Structures are given as C-alpha cells and as structure tokens.
Amino acid sequence: MEISALFARREPVFSCEFFLPKTPEETDAFLCDVRALKAFNPSFVTLTYGAGGSARDRTIAVAGRMHNEVGIETACHLAGITHTRPEIARNLERIRALGITNIVALRGDRPKDRAAPLPGDFPHALDLVAFIRKAGGFHLAVAGYPEGHPETRSREADIARLAAKVRAGGEWVITQLFFDNRHYFDFTAAARRAGVTAPIVPGIMPVTGFAQLKRFTTMCGASIPPQMAADLESIQDDAEAVVRYGITWATRQCRELLERGAPGIHFYTLNRSRSTAEILVALRKAG
Description:
The protein has 287 residues and is α/β, with parallel strands linked by helices. 48% of the residues lie in helices and 16% in strands.
C-alpha cells in the first residue's frame, strides 16, 4: 500500500508508532499488543529503528513480522547517521524482500558517547531521503519539528530543512510530539509559506507518567504547557489518574486538530495500546 495515497481520501488517517522490544524474547508479547491495537483499525503503524548493533537487524525483522504475520501496513523507520551507503542499500533490499514499501527516513539520534564526527555517509536526513528515492520503489515519510529540532539554529533553518527533505522525496511529514496545538498550526503555516505541500501529520503522545513525560520532553525539545504541568504535579502519584488525564488531554488535542484540518493523527504509543485505543474510540464516536 502507498501510505501517502491515503491522505487523498476524505477521512482522517490514524497511525500508531511502536518501538523495538528491548530483547528478542519480548517480541512475541509485543506482537500480541500490536494485534490488539489492530482491532481499532489504524491505517498503518511504524516501528522505530534500533540503530545499535543487532538491533538494526532486529528492527527490520520485527517490522516484517508486523507487516506479514499481524497483517497490518507497516512503515519501517530507517536512520542513516551511523550507516554507510552499502549498509543502507543492503537494508533497503531486506525491507523490500519483506514486502514493505513505506519508510520513515530519519537522521537518527547522535550517540551520546561520541563527540567526534560519525563515520556514516548520511549526516543529515536529507542525504538518506535522496539516497532512498534514487534507489526507487519506496514511499517516504520525513520528520517535522513544531517546536524546532533540539539542534536547530533557527526556526527558519528548520523549515528550510523540512522543505528540502520534501523536495528530495518526502511524501508526508510526521511531526515530533507536542502538547499545545498552537505549535502545530504555526509550524504548518510556516511550512506552507515555504512551499511544503505534503500532508503534515501531527504526532500525539498520550501521557502515561509524569516523570516519563519530563524525560521525553527534555530529550526531544518539546514543552509542557503550564496547566498540564500543574495538573500532573498534583496527581503524579496516582498512576490511573495520570493515564486518564493523558487520554482526556490528547483526545481534546486530536479533536481540535482534526476539526481545523489536520490530515490525521500519528500516535506515539510507547508500546501501550490502551490510551491510543480509547482515544480512537472517542474520536470515532464524535464523528
């Protein structure tokens, strides 16, 4: 399936992101969770890329099982920062052999313990997008950052990089998570002014834990709205209350985003299906 073609339809496109299980032994249980979420009919799912050691190979293998055993359209993340061109070419052949034709092309996180220049041939996501496009046969998503990439020099530079990735072959954009919809609307407007016509899909992460939320936002550069921070501070020791709060907040976000023209929602599930499933049910009931 050509995922980018889904956005030409009138109904919203819902997708879910999973990360690679930490150990091979956890894979079967993980696939059970994916099957559970499949029952709520997401249009497709994505699997994040384990860039280190054997995780590289396992990412592609597990994506293949999601696609073929679970029977759900799967886009495989591929990060280029530590790879050479021959390595990426081999990965593309493995992905192709599994019947996967959609890829989320990313630079990838710079290893924290390596300050020296990396040996890979893809220092920027743009380089990877151009390489995959030249290889042919794949449909590509690229990343967007409503609050700016953590390493960005300026908002203008960030938008210019996004526009370049789309020109090089990015067919749709998945944004980094955010909790204030104004960031998405401002970012989308700036991207349109820069000539980006590709669908820009907002990335939503239902909060499931306050400490975890603070770690994630520090890492990716997203901000926590003051009201959300205050509310979660008061209930942080009640795990169920935090989950319910996260579902309510994210549902409200999603409804406004869709009502104001977002082409769909990409859920960062954190490999937990409950919150995403409840939000999907609520959105569909609301029409």
